[in-house]
Design goal:
CATH class of the largest domain: Mainly Beta
Structural class: alpha+beta
Radius of gyration: 29 Å
Helix content: 25-40%
Shape: flat
Distance between the termini: 69 Å
Number of domains: 4
Strand content: 15-25%
Largest sheet: 6 strands, antiparallel, barrel
Strand order of the largest sheet: 9-10-16-15-12-17
Length: about 550
Protein backbone atom coordinates (compact mmCIF):
# COMPACT_ATOMS: atom_id res chain seq x y z
CA UNK A 1 0.00 0.00 0.00
CA UNK A 2 1.16 3.53 -0.76
CA UNK A 3 1.27 6.57 1.36
CA UNK A 4 -1.92 8.42 2.21
CA UNK A 5 -2.52 11.55 0.15
CA UNK A 6 -3.64 14.79 1.80
CA UNK A 7 -4.89 17.58 -0.47
CA UNK A 8 -5.03 21.16 0.83
CA UNK A 9 -5.54 24.45 -1.01
CA UNK A 10 -2.20 26.26 -0.83
CA UNK A 11 1.49 25.27 -1.01
CA UNK A 12 2.21 27.14 2.25
CA UNK A 13 -0.41 25.13 4.08
CA UNK A 14 0.85 21.92 2.48
CA UNK A 15 4.40 22.65 3.65
CA UNK A 16 3.29 23.22 7.26
CA UNK A 17 1.02 20.16 7.44
CA UNK A 18 3.60 17.91 5.81
CA UNK A 19 5.96 18.56 8.78
CA UNK A 20 3.25 17.47 11.22
CA UNK A 21 2.19 14.23 9.47
CA UNK A 22 5.50 12.57 8.69
CA UNK A 23 6.74 10.15 6.04
CA UNK A 24 3.57 8.08 5.69
CA UNK A 25 1.74 10.99 4.12
CA UNK A 26 2.12 12.98 0.93
CA UNK A 27 0.66 16.49 1.10
CA UNK A 28 -0.20 18.33 -2.11
CA UNK A 29 -1.98 21.60 -2.94
CA UNK A 30 -4.91 22.01 -5.30
CA UNK A 31 -4.02 25.72 -5.69
CA UNK A 32 -7.58 26.70 -4.74
CA UNK A 33 -10.57 25.89 -6.94
CA UNK A 34 -9.98 23.36 -9.69
CA UNK A 35 -13.31 23.57 -11.57
CA UNK A 36 -15.78 26.32 -12.34
CA UNK A 37 -18.55 27.27 -14.73
CA UNK A 38 -17.25 27.80 -18.29
CA UNK A 39 -16.06 31.29 -19.23
CA UNK A 40 -17.47 31.39 -22.74
CA UNK A 41 -21.01 30.14 -22.06
CA UNK A 42 -23.68 30.42 -19.37
CA UNK A 43 -23.00 26.92 -18.04
CA UNK A 44 -26.39 26.77 -16.29
CA UNK A 45 -29.33 24.84 -17.71
CA UNK A 46 -32.23 27.16 -16.90
CA UNK A 47 -34.81 24.65 -18.17
CA UNK A 48 -33.64 21.75 -16.02
CA UNK A 49 -33.41 22.90 -12.41
CA UNK A 50 -30.52 25.26 -13.19
CA UNK A 51 -28.13 22.32 -13.48
CA UNK A 52 -24.53 23.62 -13.70
CA UNK A 53 -21.86 22.43 -16.09
CA UNK A 54 -18.32 22.56 -14.78
CA UNK A 55 -14.97 22.44 -16.50
CA UNK A 56 -11.41 22.33 -15.25
CA UNK A 57 -9.99 25.81 -14.82
CA UNK A 58 -7.29 26.97 -17.21
CA UNK A 59 -3.91 26.37 -15.62
CA UNK A 60 -5.19 23.59 -13.33
CA UNK A 61 -4.81 20.66 -15.76
CA UNK A 62 -1.22 19.98 -14.68
CA UNK A 63 -2.25 20.13 -10.99
CA UNK A 64 -5.14 17.73 -11.63
CA UNK A 65 -2.86 15.30 -13.47
CA UNK A 66 -0.42 15.33 -10.52
CA UNK A 67 -3.24 14.75 -8.01
CA UNK A 68 -4.64 11.86 -10.06
CA UNK A 69 -1.21 10.26 -10.30
CA UNK A 70 -0.67 10.60 -6.53
CA UNK A 71 -4.18 9.26 -5.80
CA UNK A 72 -3.59 6.12 -7.92
CA UNK A 73 -0.98 4.77 -5.51
CA UNK A 74 -2.38 6.27 -2.30
CA UNK A 75 -3.81 4.15 0.48
CA UNK A 76 -6.35 6.86 1.33
CA UNK A 77 -7.11 10.32 0.04
CA UNK A 78 -7.84 13.03 2.62
CA UNK A 79 -9.47 16.17 1.28
CA UNK A 80 -8.44 19.04 3.57
CA UNK A 81 -9.31 22.42 2.03
CA UNK A 82 -10.45 25.24 4.32
CA UNK A 83 -13.38 24.60 6.69
CA UNK A 84 -15.98 26.80 4.99
CA UNK A 85 -18.45 26.61 2.09
CA UNK A 86 -15.82 27.37 -0.53
CA UNK A 87 -13.53 24.74 0.97
CA UNK A 88 -16.37 22.21 1.02
CA UNK A 89 -17.08 22.92 -2.64
CA UNK A 90 -13.41 22.41 -3.52
CA UNK A 91 -13.60 19.03 -1.73
CA UNK A 92 -16.64 18.06 -3.76
CA UNK A 93 -15.03 19.05 -7.07
CA UNK A 94 -11.87 17.13 -6.16
CA UNK A 95 -13.96 14.09 -5.19
CA UNK A 96 -15.81 14.22 -8.50
CA UNK A 97 -12.48 14.25 -10.35
CA UNK A 98 -10.65 11.66 -8.23
CA UNK A 99 -13.40 9.14 -7.36
CA UNK A 100 -12.66 7.03 -10.45
CA UNK A 101 -8.98 6.92 -9.49
CA UNK A 102 -9.40 6.26 -5.76
CA UNK A 103 -12.73 5.68 -4.00
CA UNK A 104 -11.25 5.80 -0.51
CA UNK A 105 -11.93 9.54 -0.07
CA UNK A 106 -12.34 11.33 3.27
CA UNK A 107 -13.02 14.91 4.30
CA UNK A 108 -10.85 16.32 7.11
CA UNK A 109 -10.89 19.84 8.57
CA UNK A 110 -8.36 21.85 10.52
CA UNK A 111 -9.59 24.92 12.39
CA UNK A 112 -5.97 25.77 13.10
CA UNK A 113 -2.71 24.61 11.57
CA UNK A 114 -1.00 23.20 14.64
CA UNK A 115 0.27 19.67 15.20
CA UNK A 116 -2.46 18.94 17.73
CA UNK A 117 -5.30 20.25 15.53
CA UNK A 118 -4.02 18.49 12.40
CA UNK A 119 -3.72 15.16 14.18
CA UNK A 120 -7.20 15.57 15.66
CA UNK A 121 -8.62 16.31 12.23
CA UNK A 122 -6.90 13.30 10.66
CA UNK A 123 -8.24 11.05 13.43
CA UNK A 124 -11.81 12.24 12.82
CA UNK A 125 -12.52 12.05 9.08
CA UNK A 126 -15.96 13.16 7.90
CA UNK A 127 -18.11 13.00 4.81
CA UNK A 128 -18.39 15.97 2.48
CA UNK A 129 -21.23 18.21 3.70
CA UNK A 130 -23.66 18.30 0.78
CA UNK A 131 -25.62 21.19 2.32
CA UNK A 132 -22.54 23.43 2.29
CA UNK A 133 -21.74 22.33 -1.26
CA UNK A 134 -25.29 23.12 -2.39
CA UNK A 135 -25.12 26.52 -0.69
CA UNK A 136 -21.89 27.38 -2.48
CA UNK A 137 -23.23 26.15 -5.82
CA UNK A 138 -26.43 28.16 -5.41
CA UNK A 139 -24.41 31.34 -4.82
CA UNK A 140 -22.15 30.61 -7.76
CA UNK A 141 -25.11 29.95 -10.07
CA UNK A 142 -26.84 33.14 -8.95
CA UNK A 143 -23.61 35.07 -9.53
CA UNK A 144 -23.40 33.64 -13.04
CA UNK A 145 -27.05 34.33 -13.88
CA UNK A 146 -26.87 37.94 -12.68
CA UNK A 147 -23.53 38.59 -14.34
CA UNK A 148 -24.31 36.78 -17.59
CA UNK A 149 -27.77 38.25 -18.02
CA UNK A 150 -27.22 41.80 -16.83
CA UNK A 151 -23.67 42.57 -17.96
CA UNK A 152 -24.55 42.50 -21.71
CA UNK A 153 -27.16 45.21 -21.03
CA UNK A 154 -24.40 47.40 -19.64
CA UNK A 155 -22.25 46.63 -22.67
CA UNK A 156 -25.09 47.70 -24.94
CA UNK A 157 -26.03 50.87 -23.06
CA UNK A 158 -22.71 52.08 -21.65
CA UNK A 159 -19.58 50.28 -22.82
CA UNK A 160 -18.19 46.81 -23.31
CA UNK A 161 -16.25 45.11 -20.55
CA UNK A 162 -18.47 46.27 -17.69
CA UNK A 163 -19.79 43.77 -15.17
CA UNK A 164 -22.80 43.45 -12.91
CA UNK A 165 -22.65 41.15 -9.92
CA UNK A 166 -25.19 39.81 -7.45
CA UNK A 167 -23.40 41.46 -4.50
CA UNK A 168 -21.16 43.93 -6.28
CA UNK A 169 -24.12 45.82 -7.79
CA UNK A 170 -25.81 46.17 -4.40
CA UNK A 171 -22.59 47.41 -2.79
CA UNK A 172 -22.21 49.98 -5.57
CA UNK A 173 -25.79 51.16 -5.04
CA UNK A 174 -25.09 51.66 -1.31
CA UNK A 175 -22.11 53.88 -2.16
CA UNK A 176 -24.10 55.80 -4.79
CA UNK A 177 -27.09 56.39 -2.51
CA UNK A 178 -24.81 57.70 0.23
CA UNK A 179 -23.13 60.03 -2.26
CA UNK A 180 -26.50 61.43 -3.28
CA UNK A 181 -27.35 62.00 0.37
CA UNK A 182 -24.09 63.92 0.72
CA UNK A 183 -24.74 66.04 -2.40
CA UNK A 184 -28.36 66.76 -1.42
CA UNK A 185 -27.46 67.67 2.15
CA UNK A 186 -28.14 71.26 3.22
CA UNK A 187 -26.27 72.28 6.37
CA UNK A 188 -28.25 73.89 9.17
CA UNK A 189 -26.83 76.38 11.62
CA UNK A 190 -26.93 75.76 15.36
CA UNK A 191 -25.14 77.11 18.41
CA UNK A 192 -23.89 75.73 21.69
CA UNK A 193 -23.13 77.64 24.86
CA UNK A 194 -20.50 76.51 27.31
CA UNK A 195 -19.66 78.00 30.70
CA UNK A 196 -16.12 77.66 32.05
CA UNK A 197 -16.54 77.39 35.82
CA UNK A 198 -14.43 77.15 38.97
CA UNK A 199 -15.41 75.29 42.15
CA UNK A 200 -13.78 75.41 45.58
CA UNK A 201 -11.22 72.89 44.39
CA UNK A 202 -9.52 72.52 40.97
CA UNK A 203 -9.65 71.80 38.12
CA UNK A 204 -11.80 74.35 36.24
CA UNK A 205 -14.45 72.61 34.16
CA UNK A 206 -16.96 73.33 31.41
CA UNK A 207 -20.72 72.92 31.71
CA UNK A 208 -22.95 73.13 28.65
CA UNK A 209 -26.33 74.79 28.32
CA UNK A 210 -28.96 72.09 28.76
CA UNK A 211 -32.27 73.89 29.31
CA UNK A 212 -33.70 77.38 29.00
CA UNK A 213 -36.69 77.59 31.32
CA UNK A 214 -38.50 74.28 31.06
CA UNK A 215 -37.46 73.61 27.46
CA UNK A 216 -34.42 71.85 26.14
CA UNK A 217 -31.87 74.29 24.79
CA UNK A 218 -32.24 74.79 21.04
CA UNK A 219 -30.13 77.68 19.80
CA UNK A 220 -30.60 78.08 16.05
CA UNK A 221 -29.00 81.48 15.48
CA UNK A 222 -26.57 83.95 16.96
CA UNK A 223 -29.52 86.10 17.99
CA UNK A 224 -30.93 83.20 20.03
CA UNK A 225 -27.54 82.71 21.66
CA UNK A 226 -26.96 86.40 22.36
CA UNK A 227 -30.34 86.58 24.10
CA UNK A 228 -29.39 83.72 26.43
CA UNK A 229 -25.96 85.25 27.11
CA UNK A 230 -27.64 88.55 27.98
CA UNK A 231 -29.95 86.80 30.45
CA UNK A 232 -26.88 85.45 32.27
CA UNK A 233 -25.03 88.76 32.77
CA UNK A 234 -25.70 88.98 36.50
CA UNK A 235 -26.63 85.34 37.13
CA UNK A 236 -25.21 83.27 39.96
CA UNK A 237 -24.09 79.75 39.06
CA UNK A 238 -25.23 77.32 41.75
CA UNK A 239 -24.93 73.52 41.83
CA UNK A 240 -28.49 72.19 41.92
CA UNK A 241 -27.73 68.47 41.97
CA UNK A 242 -24.80 66.08 41.78
CA UNK A 243 -25.28 62.44 40.83
CA UNK A 244 -22.50 59.87 40.76
CA UNK A 245 -22.87 56.39 39.32
CA UNK A 246 -20.56 53.50 38.76
CA UNK A 247 -20.48 52.52 35.12
CA UNK A 248 -19.06 49.32 33.70
CA UNK A 249 -17.81 48.90 30.17
CA UNK A 250 -17.78 45.29 29.06
CA UNK A 251 -15.17 43.84 26.71
CA UNK A 252 -15.93 43.13 23.08
CA UNK A 253 -16.10 39.56 21.69
CA UNK A 254 -13.12 37.91 20.00
CA UNK A 255 -12.83 38.66 16.30
CA UNK A 256 -15.04 37.30 13.57
CA UNK A 257 -13.95 37.99 9.99
CA UNK A 258 -15.92 41.17 9.40
CA UNK A 259 -14.93 42.73 12.73
CA UNK A 260 -11.27 41.91 12.08
CA UNK A 261 -11.52 43.65 8.72
CA UNK A 262 -13.12 46.71 10.30
CA UNK A 263 -10.70 47.04 13.20
CA UNK A 264 -7.64 46.42 11.04
CA UNK A 265 -8.86 49.24 8.79
CA UNK A 266 -9.53 51.66 11.66
CA UNK A 267 -6.55 50.86 13.87
CA UNK A 268 -3.89 49.80 11.38
CA UNK A 269 -5.02 51.42 8.13
CA UNK A 270 -5.10 48.07 6.31
CA UNK A 271 -7.36 47.44 3.33
CA UNK A 272 -9.71 44.48 3.60
CA UNK A 273 -7.68 42.60 1.00
CA UNK A 274 -4.42 43.20 2.88
CA UNK A 275 -5.97 42.06 6.16
CA UNK A 276 -7.17 38.79 4.66
CA UNK A 277 -3.84 38.14 2.92
CA UNK A 278 -1.91 38.64 6.16
CA UNK A 279 -4.41 36.56 8.15
CA UNK A 280 -4.09 33.73 5.61
CA UNK A 281 -0.32 33.66 6.19
CA UNK A 282 -0.72 33.65 9.97
CA UNK A 283 -3.21 30.79 9.69
CA UNK A 284 -1.27 28.64 7.25
CA UNK A 285 1.97 28.75 9.19
CA UNK A 286 4.97 30.95 9.94
CA UNK A 287 8.58 29.78 10.21
CA UNK A 288 9.52 30.40 13.86
CA UNK A 289 13.12 29.22 13.73
CA UNK A 290 13.80 26.42 16.23
CA UNK A 291 10.06 26.09 16.89
CA UNK A 292 9.48 25.10 13.27
CA UNK A 293 6.54 26.19 11.12
CA UNK A 294 3.46 26.99 13.20
CA UNK A 295 0.03 28.35 12.39
CA UNK A 296 -0.37 31.32 14.71
CA UNK A 297 -4.14 31.93 14.43
CA UNK A 298 -7.26 29.85 13.95
CA UNK A 299 -9.18 29.89 10.66
CA UNK A 300 -9.76 33.49 9.62
CA UNK A 301 -13.07 33.12 7.73
CA UNK A 302 -15.67 32.74 10.45
CA UNK A 303 -18.79 34.41 11.78
CA UNK A 304 -18.75 32.58 15.12
CA UNK A 305 -17.56 33.92 18.48
CA UNK A 306 -17.34 30.41 19.95
CA UNK A 307 -14.10 29.49 21.73
CA UNK A 308 -12.93 25.93 22.41
CA UNK A 309 -12.94 25.01 26.14
CA UNK A 310 -9.20 24.31 26.18
CA UNK A 311 -8.49 27.74 24.62
CA UNK A 312 -10.69 29.41 27.23
CA UNK A 313 -8.74 27.79 30.04
CA UNK A 314 -5.45 28.71 28.42
CA UNK A 315 -6.32 32.39 28.05
CA UNK A 316 -7.67 32.55 31.61
CA UNK A 317 -4.38 31.17 32.90
CA UNK A 318 -2.53 33.73 30.79
CA UNK A 319 -4.58 36.63 32.19
CA UNK A 320 -3.71 35.67 35.77
CA UNK A 321 0.00 35.37 34.99
CA UNK A 322 0.32 38.44 32.78
CA UNK A 323 -2.12 40.87 34.43
CA UNK A 324 -3.04 39.50 37.84
CA UNK A 325 -6.01 37.60 39.30
CA UNK A 326 -7.97 40.84 39.80
CA UNK A 327 -8.41 41.06 36.00
CA UNK A 328 -9.98 37.60 35.67
CA UNK A 329 -13.78 37.19 35.93
CA UNK A 330 -15.07 34.29 38.03
CA UNK A 331 -16.50 32.52 34.99
CA UNK A 332 -15.44 32.46 31.33
CA UNK A 333 -17.29 34.82 29.02
CA UNK A 334 -19.55 33.41 26.33
CA UNK A 335 -20.78 35.62 23.51
CA UNK A 336 -23.98 35.36 21.52
CA UNK A 337 -23.76 34.48 17.85
CA UNK A 338 -26.10 35.31 15.00
CA UNK A 339 -28.79 32.99 13.66
CA UNK A 340 -26.88 32.33 10.43
CA UNK A 341 -23.59 31.59 12.17
CA UNK A 342 -21.67 28.48 11.11
CA UNK A 343 -21.35 27.11 14.62
CA UNK A 344 -18.67 24.55 13.80
CA UNK A 345 -16.11 27.34 13.57
CA UNK A 346 -14.39 29.20 16.34
CA UNK A 347 -13.67 32.89 16.57
CA UNK A 348 -10.33 34.14 15.26
CA UNK A 349 -7.82 33.65 18.07
CA UNK A 350 -4.18 32.71 18.69
CA UNK A 351 -3.60 28.98 18.44
CA UNK A 352 -1.59 29.00 21.67
CA UNK A 353 -0.97 31.47 24.47
CA UNK A 354 2.67 30.31 24.59
CA UNK A 355 3.46 32.41 21.50
CA UNK A 356 2.92 35.99 22.64
CA UNK A 357 3.47 38.66 19.97
CA UNK A 358 6.78 39.81 21.47
CA UNK A 359 8.10 36.24 21.43
CA UNK A 360 7.51 35.79 17.69
CA UNK A 361 8.12 39.37 16.60
CA UNK A 362 11.57 38.74 15.12
CA UNK A 363 10.15 36.07 12.81
CA UNK A 364 7.31 38.20 11.43
CA UNK A 365 7.17 41.08 8.99
CA UNK A 366 5.97 44.35 10.49
CA UNK A 367 2.39 44.12 9.23
CA UNK A 368 2.13 40.43 10.16
CA UNK A 369 3.20 41.35 13.68
CA UNK A 370 0.70 44.22 13.89
CA UNK A 371 -2.22 42.04 12.80
CA UNK A 372 -1.20 39.17 15.07
CA UNK A 373 -0.94 41.59 18.01
CA UNK A 374 -4.41 42.95 17.22
CA UNK A 375 -5.89 39.43 17.21
CA UNK A 376 -3.98 38.47 20.36
CA UNK A 377 -5.03 41.54 22.34
CA UNK A 378 -8.67 41.32 21.30
CA UNK A 379 -8.82 37.66 22.33
CA UNK A 380 -7.20 38.29 25.72
CA UNK A 381 -9.40 41.33 26.37
CA UNK A 382 -12.56 39.37 25.54
CA UNK A 383 -12.01 37.21 28.65
CA UNK A 384 -11.09 39.99 31.09
CA UNK A 385 -13.17 41.90 33.62
CA UNK A 386 -15.01 45.05 32.53
CA UNK A 387 -13.53 48.51 32.93
CA UNK A 388 -15.13 50.46 35.79
CA UNK A 389 -15.71 54.22 35.84
CA UNK A 390 -17.19 56.69 38.32
CA UNK A 391 -19.43 58.93 36.20
CA UNK A 392 -20.59 62.21 37.72
CA UNK A 393 -23.34 64.43 36.35
CA UNK A 394 -23.83 67.89 37.81
CA UNK A 395 -26.77 70.20 37.02
CA UNK A 396 -26.01 73.89 37.56
CA UNK A 397 -28.62 76.66 37.74
CA UNK A 398 -27.90 80.14 36.41
CA UNK A 399 -30.75 82.61 36.00
CA UNK A 400 -33.36 81.05 33.69
CA UNK A 401 -30.88 78.43 32.46
CA UNK A 402 -29.75 74.98 33.48
CA UNK A 403 -26.24 73.88 32.57
CA UNK A 404 -24.98 70.30 32.76
CA UNK A 405 -21.45 69.00 33.28
CA UNK A 406 -20.43 65.37 32.98
CA UNK A 407 -17.12 63.77 33.84
CA UNK A 408 -15.66 60.45 34.80
CA UNK A 409 -12.68 58.84 36.45
CA UNK A 410 -11.48 55.31 35.83
CA UNK A 411 -11.60 53.13 38.94
CA UNK A 412 -10.38 49.93 37.30
CA UNK A 413 -9.01 49.54 33.74
CA UNK A 414 -10.20 45.97 33.22
CA UNK A 415 -9.92 44.89 29.59
CA UNK A 416 -8.96 48.43 28.52
CA UNK A 417 -5.51 47.64 29.89
CA UNK A 418 -5.14 45.42 26.83
CA UNK A 419 -7.50 46.60 24.09
CA UNK A 420 -8.98 50.01 23.28
CA UNK A 421 -12.21 49.99 21.30
CA UNK A 422 -12.34 52.20 18.24
CA UNK A 423 -15.68 52.79 16.56
CA UNK A 424 -16.36 54.62 13.31
CA UNK A 425 -16.75 58.28 14.22
CA UNK A 426 -20.35 59.39 14.05
CA UNK A 427 -21.23 62.73 12.55
CA UNK A 428 -21.82 65.69 14.86
CA UNK A 429 -25.05 67.07 13.47
CA UNK A 430 -27.03 68.25 16.48
CA UNK A 431 -26.56 70.44 19.52
CA UNK A 432 -26.60 67.30 21.64
CA UNK A 433 -23.47 65.93 19.96
CA UNK A 434 -20.45 67.01 22.03
CA UNK A 435 -17.27 68.24 20.42
CA UNK A 436 -15.38 65.60 22.40
CA UNK A 437 -16.07 62.85 24.85
CA UNK A 438 -17.08 64.84 27.91
CA UNK A 439 -17.12 61.74 30.11
CA UNK A 440 -13.35 61.48 29.61
CA UNK A 441 -12.90 64.70 31.60
CA UNK A 442 -12.60 64.81 35.36
CA UNK A 443 -14.84 67.09 37.46
CA UNK A 444 -13.72 68.67 40.75
CA UNK A 445 -15.56 67.73 43.96
CA UNK A 446 -18.98 69.45 43.88
CA UNK A 447 -21.72 69.76 46.50
CA UNK A 448 -25.38 70.74 46.17
CA UNK A 449 -25.92 74.45 46.78
CA UNK A 450 -22.26 75.31 46.08
CA UNK A 451 -21.72 78.62 44.31
CA UNK A 452 -19.40 78.50 41.34
CA UNK A 453 -17.26 81.22 39.81
CA UNK A 454 -17.86 81.95 36.13
CA UNK A 455 -14.62 82.44 34.21
CA UNK A 456 -16.28 82.95 30.83
CA UNK A 457 -19.20 82.05 28.60
CA UNK A 458 -18.19 80.37 25.36
CA UNK A 459 -20.80 80.52 22.57
CA UNK A 460 -19.91 78.50 19.44
CA UNK A 461 -21.43 78.36 15.99
CA UNK A 462 -21.83 74.98 14.30
CA UNK A 463 -23.32 73.53 11.15
CA UNK A 464 -24.83 70.09 10.79
CA UNK A 465 -22.68 67.70 8.77
CA UNK A 466 -23.69 65.42 5.90
CA UNK A 467 -23.61 61.66 6.42
CA UNK A 468 -20.01 60.47 6.01
CA UNK A 469 -18.90 58.75 2.83
CA UNK A 470 -18.03 55.10 3.31
CA UNK A 471 -14.57 53.96 4.31
CA UNK A 472 -13.61 50.31 3.82
CA UNK A 473 -14.47 49.67 7.48
CA UNK A 474 -17.87 51.35 7.40
CA UNK A 475 -18.84 49.79 4.05
CA UNK A 476 -17.99 46.33 5.36
CA UNK A 477 -20.12 47.09 8.42
CA UNK A 478 -23.02 48.22 6.22
CA UNK A 479 -22.81 45.08 4.07
CA UNK A 480 -22.64 42.86 7.13
CA UNK A 481 -25.58 44.52 8.90
CA UNK A 482 -27.74 44.15 5.79
CA UNK A 483 -26.76 40.53 5.15
CA UNK A 484 -25.13 41.36 1.81
CA UNK A 485 -22.35 39.01 0.74
CA UNK A 486 -20.05 37.15 3.08
CA UNK A 487 -16.98 38.40 4.97
CA UNK A 488 -14.83 36.12 2.83
CA UNK A 489 -16.00 37.99 -0.30
CA UNK A 490 -15.78 41.59 0.93
CA UNK A 491 -12.19 42.06 -0.23
CA UNK A 492 -13.09 40.94 -3.76
CA UNK A 493 -16.21 43.13 -3.82
CA UNK A 494 -14.36 46.28 -2.82
CA UNK A 495 -11.49 45.55 -5.21
CA UNK A 496 -13.87 44.93 -8.13
CA UNK A 497 -15.71 48.21 -7.59
CA UNK A 498 -12.39 50.03 -7.94
CA UNK A 499 -10.86 48.02 -10.79
CA UNK A 500 -14.08 48.43 -12.83
CA UNK A 501 -13.83 52.19 -12.25
CA UNK A 502 -17.22 52.30 -10.53
CA UNK A 503 -15.79 54.02 -7.46
CA UNK A 504 -12.57 55.74 -6.49
CA UNK A 505 -11.01 56.51 -3.15
CA UNK A 506 -10.69 60.09 -2.00
CA UNK A 507 -8.81 60.45 1.30
CA UNK A 508 -9.69 56.85 2.14
CA UNK A 509 -13.40 57.26 1.36
CA UNK A 510 -15.39 55.79 -1.52
CA UNK A 511 -16.76 58.22 -4.11
CA UNK A 512 -18.73 56.86 -7.09
CA UNK A 513 -17.49 57.80 -10.53
CA UNK A 514 -19.78 59.03 -13.28
CA UNK A 515 -19.66 55.48 -14.61
CA UNK A 516 -20.73 54.11 -11.21
CA UNK A 517 -23.65 56.54 -11.06
CA UNK A 518 -24.70 55.57 -14.58
CA UNK A 519 -24.54 51.82 -13.90
CA UNK A 520 -26.52 52.17 -10.68
CA UNK A 521 -29.23 54.20 -12.44
CA UNK A 522 -29.44 51.58 -15.18
CA UNK A 523 -29.79 48.70 -12.74
CA UNK A 524 -32.09 50.42 -10.25
CA UNK A 525 -35.12 51.65 -12.19
CA UNK A 526 -36.63 51.29 -15.67
CA UNK A 527 -36.51 55.09 -15.95
CA UNK A 528 -32.82 54.91 -15.22
CA UNK A 529 -32.15 53.35 -18.61
CA UNK A 530 -33.16 56.53 -20.44
CA UNK A 531 -31.85 59.01 -17.83
CA UNK A 532 -28.44 57.31 -17.48
CA UNK A 533 -27.98 56.83 -21.21
CA UNK A 534 -28.57 60.55 -21.76
CA UNK A 535 -26.13 61.47 -18.99
CA UNK A 536 -23.43 59.09 -20.21
CA UNK A 537 -23.66 60.52 -23.75
CA UNK A 538 -23.30 64.08 -22.41
CA UNK A 539 -20.28 62.97 -20.40
CA UNK A 540 -18.56 61.95 -23.60
Amino acid sequence: MGKSLVIVESPAKAKTINKFLGRNFTVKASMGHVRDLPKKSLGVDEKHDFKPTYEILPGRKKVIDELKKAAETADKVYLAPDPDREGEAICWHLAEILKKTNKNLHRVMFNEITKRAVQQGMNDPQKIDSNKVDAQQARRILDRLVGYKVSPLLWDKVRRGLSAGRVQSVALRIVVEREREVLAFKPEEYWTLGALLEAKEPPPFEARLFKVGDKKADLKTQADTDAVVASLQNATFVVRSVESKEKKKNPVPPFITSKLQQDASRKLGFTVRKTMTLAQRLYEGMDLGDLGTVGLITYMRTDSTRIAPEALQEVRDHIVKAHGPEFLPEEPRYYKTGKMTQGAHEAIRPTTMDLAPDRVRKYLQKDEFLLYSLIWNRFVASQMKPAVFDVTTADIEAGPCLFRATGSTMKFPGYLAVYQDIAEKSRKDSPDAPEEDETARALPPLTEGERLKLQKLDPKQHFTQPPPRFTEASLVKELEENGIGRPSTYATILATLQTRDYVEKNEGKFVPTELGLTVTDLLSTPRGWKRSWTRSRKAG
